[in-house]
Request: fold
Amino acid sequence: MVEKAILLLEDGRIFIGKSFGAEGETVGEVCFNTGMTGYQEILTDPSYCRQIVTMTTPHIG
Reply:
């Protein structure tokens, strides 16, 4: 289910968007991925543990 999400950065900037997956609050390093394919692998890759993955492709799926 897609839920409203708020991303608050260390410098005080706020971004409103949509999240999916587990509900709740979290803290982590924001990283991004520019891939047009392979998003399933990215979201299940253990190397992204404790990171907030931002997809730069506007359409996933």
